[in-house]
Specification:
The protein is built from 9 helices and 6 strands; from the N terminus they run βαββαββααβααααα. The chain is α+β, with helices and mostly antiparallel strands.
Length: 235
């Protein structure tokens, strides 16, 4: 069995809902291997350290655990995925200066997907580059696997949001979107009610006020109601 560390951020059905009421039930329904962040109404963040044979199995089981407690919730982010200079230095076990001068400055370093207000990369791209480059970083196989899954999952989440296909049970599926053509998506979009699309857009309007998923987790960690005492929730 492998051990995977990953974070899940969910939007609750009610944007004003206090996530604290779900904490005890989540622990009882299999999330006792997670730190739960409850620092922002309308959202709940969980950081798991879960054993499984594969990353996908670990994430799927975690999502099912959450879904058994919170009905009609939406998965808005799976991490680790988005990283800046600081996170890259931590993952590659080097200084921020080293990342800037020797890694980012390299011609073959991955292109960031965001440059303003902060420069961000996909962790999977950075780890793949480090593994193939001359860097001395030791890349954990489980970390590389979960980061690739996070990238893939977040891409699907974003595509589903734009298509108005938000339902909990297929928010994470290895084949749900791969088998769909653009024509099929357009047909399904036309079949969805305006209220469901409005709900999905409203969720992401709230979520977009946070620059990265790490910000939400940081708010959760700083909240005095943070579960499991004073332990921090890091993205």
């Amino acid at each position: 069995m492998n051990t995977y560390e990953f974070s899940l951020i969910f939007a609750l059905p009610d944007p004003q809902e206090d996530p604290e009421k779900y904490v005890d039930a989540l622990y009882q329904k299999g999330c006792d291997d997670a730190l739960i962040g409850i620092g922002k109404n309308g959202f709940i963040a969980l950081e798991f350290c879960r054993e499984a044979k594969m990353a996908e199995a670990a994430v799927e089981s975690a999502i099912k655990n959450v879904g058994s407690v919170i009905q009609d919730t939406m998965l808005v982010s799976l991490g680790p995925d988005h990283v800046g200079i600081t996170e890259i230095s931590e993952y590659l076990d080097c200084t921020r200066q080293n990342v800037r001068q020797n890694y980012v400055a390299s011609k073959d370093f991955p292109i960031p997907f965001c440059v303003s207000p902060s420069t961000l990369w996909h962790l999977a791209d950075v780890l793949a580059w480090a593994k193939q480059s001359k860097s001395r970083a030791v890349i954990d196989a489980c970390l590389l696997e979960i980061s690739r899954l996070a990238y893939k999952c977040n891409q699907k989440i974003d595509r589903k949001r734009h298509a108005g296909l938000w339902v909990f049970e297929d928010a994470f599926s290895s084949s749900a979107l791969d088998a769909e053509t653009t024509d099929n998506l357009e047909k399904r979009i036309s079949q969805k009610s305006h209220s469901k699309m409005a709900k999905a857009n409203a969720v992401f309007e709230r979520f977009s006020s946070l620059s990265t998923p790490k910000d939400l987790s940081s708010q959760a960690a700083n909240d005095p109601r943070m579960s499991k005492g004073d332990e921090s929730l890091s993205a």
